[in-house]
Amino acid sequence: MTRYAMVLNVKNCIDCKACMVACTAENGVPLGKHRNWVKTQTRGAFPEISMRIEPGQCMHCDNPPCVRVCPTGASFINVHAGGIVAIDPNKCIGCRYCMLACPYDARYFDEEKGVVDKCTFCLHRVVQGKEPACVETCPTKVRVFGDLDDPQSEVSQALGTRPTERKKLEAGTHPNLYYIVE
Amino acid sequence: MLHHEWNWMVVVYLYVGGLGAGCLVLSGLAHLSRWEHLRGIARAGALFAPVLVILGCGLLVFDLGKPLNFWRLFTSWNPVSPMWVGSWLLMFFSLISLCQALLHLPPRWALALGRSVPSLRRPMAGLSDWNSQISEQSYAQTTHGDEPMNTYPNGPRAINKLRDLLATIGIPVGIGVGIYTGVLLGAVPARPFWNTPMVAQLFLFSALSTATALLFLVVPRVWEGSQEHRKRERKALVTADLFFMVGEFFIIVPFVIHAQLGTLSEKTALDMILGGAYTNIFWIGVVLLGLFLPMIIEVGEYFDWFKRLPQKLVRPTTALAAILILFGGYLLRWIFVHAGQDTTFL
Q1: Nearest Cα to B258, choosing from B201, B207, B192, B205?
Q2: Reduced to 3 DSSP states, what percent helix, strand and coil does chain B have, rounded to the nearest 5?
Q3: What is the pTM of this model?
Q4: Are A68 and B80 inside 8 Å of each other by CB?
Q5: Interface pTM (ipTM) of the complex?
């Protein structure tokens, strides 16, 4: 089995947003919508000031609330593609219940197509042996993508050696994005 | 307010869906009770239920990104999705309530329909015969006033049984739809304002209360009765409504207390109505104008406080109570849909 996951070394992030641009270009994301984001939070005032930068995207949860609430089965866990959370646009009727059910607000509504869309871990690239667009483009190497079930993969190595946390675990979602904490 | 995915169409659906559900429940109860003075409620409720719920369903479908693909709701299998369960409930509700509406159609309307659509003339003539009821006077003579009885002398036994059966199934299905409108919102942990066990109950009681208020206003239009009939009918509606409103109040109280006892997510979410953007509209619009004021008027009506007032004033005052309840019910749905989307799981 393959289990795709991502480890993010947040400390390296410089808020350049290249990942957002790469994703938008790669996946033809409509203007004004995003599949990934970079959130910033500043503390204090100049000169005693610090900034926390945190990139994110769909967490590809093992227990995704979006899949549970989907009335047509359009949202599903693709067990044949590393357990990513995927959307079948033919089955999606655009009720947007999944968007409200996602605690990470990782989904957007594509008004033109009338369906909901989100990060796919760039599955079309991954099957060709390439990395997701956000991973490949990141100039400071914040993101590491790979297979959790392969002990030699970069994500497994990173998870084995670095302390990490996951977001909103209390929501019971079992997310697959790991943030390195130091 | 942030950008909201669910807007007025969902608000109106939750409102009219609840109203229709309440109408079917009250109609079923009134019909099965066999009381003479509740016959108008049975009829009006049965006529309004399908109209309101089908209107709501239409809005739901129209709100979809791909309205023409709504049929996919019925070709999939996902019983853990509240929306999937709700779609089937609404489908079932529409079928039952349409049949029930037919069997409660006033004979005059059936005949008029037969006149305007010639091919329906004969079936409608039969229906008007089945649906004709004994007059209030003969009811009083046959039963010496009080004992409840079936009032359809011309309906075949099977049709009268079917009418009873539809009412019996309609009550739980109506309660189901009333609860479902709340479960739809309550089922998502990502929106803490919705994710409490009280929302479903609150919506059900509000649905029943607004339906009672609606029937209060419309029953005189579909059932002509003597003054005595009208008096007992009003008393029954006011009593039921007071029960529902007290229930509603005692659901709002723990909902608010929950804010102080819950996690940070819940506290932050409940701040929406405890100092946040929706505070005034909730406490003044829903609680004061939509609940307390009509409650006082209805208590007055119940205990006959207004009998010294001129008759000209009594009517508008009690009608005002019903209108306020309907208005408060709409505001409640509006606040929940929007405040919920302003909150997030922390």
Answers
A1: B192
A2: 80, 0, 20
A3: 0.92
A4: yes
A5: 0.89
Q: Which one-letter DSSP state was computed for residue B282? A: I
Q: Can you name the CATH fold of A4-180?
A: Alpha-Beta Plaits (3.30.70)
Amino acid at site B84: W
- Best of B13, B68, B69, B263 to disrupt the A interface (most A CBs within 10 Å) is B69
- In tens digits, chain A (182 residues) has pLDDT values of 899 999 999 999 999 999 999 999 999 999 999 999 999 999 999 899 988 899 999 999 999 999 999 999 999 999 999 999 999 999 999 999 999 999 999 999 999 999 999 999 999 999 999 999 999 999 999 999 999 999 999 999 999 999 999 999 989 999 999 999 97
Count of domains observed in chain B: 1
Whether B209 is in a domain gets the answer yes
Domain with B57 in it: 8-342
Q: Name the closest residue on chain B to residue A108, using Cα atoms.
A: B5
Question: Quick check: is B99 in a domain?
Answer: yes
Distance (Å, rounded) from C-alpha A166 to C-alpha A181? 10
B59: its two tokens? 């809005």
Distance, C-alpha B283 to centroid of its chain: 22
Any domain includes B1 = no
Interface contact flag, B87 A71, Cβ < 8 Å: yes
What distance in Å separates residue A40's CA from the closest CA in chain B?
16
Whether B187 is covered by a domain: the verdict is yes
For residues A40 and A53, is the Cβ–Cβ distance under 8 A?
yes
Question: Which residues of chain B have a CB within 8 Å of the CB of A109?
Answer: 5, 65
